[in-house]
Amino acid sequence: MTGRRVVITGLGVISPLGNSVAECWNSALQGRSGVGPITRFDASQFSTTIAAEVKNFDPLTYIETKEVKKLDLFSQYALGAAVQAWEHAGLGNYQGDRSRIGCILGIGIGGLTTLEKYYQLYIDGGPRKISPFLIPAMISNLGPGNIAIRLGCKGINYVTTSACTSSTHALGEAYRIVREGLQDVVISGGSESAVTHLGIGGFCAMKALSTRNDEPTRASRPFDKDRDGFVLGEGSAVLVVEALESAEKRGAPILAELTGYGFSCDAYHITAPCSDGEGAVACMKAALASACIEPAQVSYVNAHGTSTPANDVVETAAIKQVFGPHAHKGLMVSSTKSMTGHLLGAAGAIEALFCCLAIRDGRVPPTINLEVPDEGCDLDYVANAARTAPVNHALSNSFGFGGTNASLVLSKFV
User: Fold this and answer.
1) Mean pLDDT value across residues 295-300
2) Do 278 and 389 share a domain, yes or no?
3) Which of 88, 103, 274, 342 is an active site residue?
4) Where do the H-state alpha helices sit in 324-346?
5) How many Å apart are CA 335 and CA 315, to the nearest integer?
6) Model confidence over 91-143: pLDDT tens digits?
7) Which of 169, 304, 356, 377 is labelled catalytic?
């Protein structure tokens, strides 16, 4: 694939593992779980009473007091992560053409907190209780919209919504747009805050969530035979995707190179992956072809790894089909959802961020809670402890409801 080289120059994160890149990454390397009892509301009537909530987040660090009430939590998280990434990339004093800076976020659900709040106010008090801020707070495209307003990004601005693949698609599209020369910088990633009555209730009704309520830190256990569902997480991760020449001109830090993007659709079922892994295989192969690398060159795969009975076995089989003998001879695979829970639309973004850091530091985050691998789950999942190892190319997988799939390749910059 021809075009400009695309690099990552800034990172920001608000997450269950911490509200800065350093804190989040340190927690991941130590194998800490961000899962605990739900504190946002009384969840005692639900079959699942645990989640991976963001803790100790102060929106006033990033947002003026008068603006906070206008923003749903997912937008607050997105602004926090975006401001961190912007500053990390050294864009604070950017003097260039602001129409060459865009923002694309992946958001799977959007403002559930706002929707629930104002529906209850309407039920209790009638239409006069509905705020004029309801729609602007709730709709997902105000995630990137608010970032653009805050940072002065006058280029492309939109949201991708494709369930759990949303932010991987967002980053992939940012990569394509920068590579093709349409923008010099795209602020990209994802945000989500669905730990609400309806968010938890909806997934409980699907029987998708773990009910290991008495052991919350052990509930998310990808590839383990005793897994019983995913743990809902929340937060935001934002990456600055930039053309190499732009980064070099600014003297910006280069954390990794974004080299490949692949996508596919199972066209099979609204929630279940295709049992033969055809869609997962197709998007991984497409990403590797886009990056012009061979499977044996990949050091690390950050798996979708949801801790659900369906995903983990199918994804393992797909990885083995794509990587052949290399899958058992040197390929490291881990699911950081074991620690963060599943951030839905923001999952791909935080996992791409972990890939960048693994490349930068030569440290691979673990899959915690992996005690007895399930039948068919026979790869090197970096079980329970981080590993020091060089990572030259990393693959990040995301697979979502509706059979939508995407993979990214991130590489060491040379």
Assistant:
1) 98
2) yes
3) 342
4) 337-340
5) 11
6) 998 988 999 999 999 999 999 999 999 999 999 999 999 999 999 999 999 99
7) 304
